Amino acid sequence: MIKKISILLLLFAVFWSCKEEPKTKSEPQHQTKEEQNFSLVPKNLSAKDFAVCKDEKCPEIRIAYVEVKDGYAQADAINQALKRHLVAIVDANMQMDLNNSDLKKAVAYFIEDFLRFKTEFDAGNIGYELEMEQSLLAETSELISFTTNFYIFTGGAHGYGATNYLNFDRKNGKLLTKEDLFTNLDAFRKYAEEKFRQEYNIGKERPINATGFLFDDNQFKLPQNIGFTEEEVLLLYHPYEAASYAEGSLKLRFQKSQVQQWLAY
Q1: pTM, rounded to two decimals
Q2: What is the rounded distance in angstroms from the CA atom of residue 181 to the CA atom of residue 196?
């Protein structure tokens, strides 16, 4: 299980334990005609969409995701990235090396793995579960931010669930990294560490892991998972990224006005 979680964290270079409410899309200012065409179509995928599940008992599958409508200049690039992200969640857990954006194929592998496991181990009572929900988190004149909540169970003591963020440059559709999001990442990291220590009562003179956190090399690090609402910057640490599974996800929230000097978007 720990190996699978480590692979998950490595895969998400930009990112249902703590869930953000999707924002109602507001109309950004000074948009070009192509930018004004940005809108989303809800999509769903479940076990009933697979022929094998008509005759076999399949895992619980509940997937709700979004696609950008044609007419927006960067629709294809963003749609491919959104689907690749969902595939990566399944891939990391199943370790099938699915480096593509074919979501239905990835879920088919998940179902096949379950049926194989059930047959080989005569484990009719062991149920797999796959749940993913992807939605718009925020939209500004420069940035489009999505949230993906997921939960996967493939046997064992417990499943694994978390929330991921994906951020895109509105004008060119580029999937943004931490380095893209901030004009001075090191300065922002120092500010975030100060606030983290205040939040969790860790004195400036004490090691960051003094109260039981699990930062590598006892050095504070920003999470892989950084998201944006229209008013806030969200830092979200997955289970095992900075603390034990029992602690769940850890979140810091900053008003954009507090950190505006370091924001690139």
Answers
A1: 0.81
A2: 20
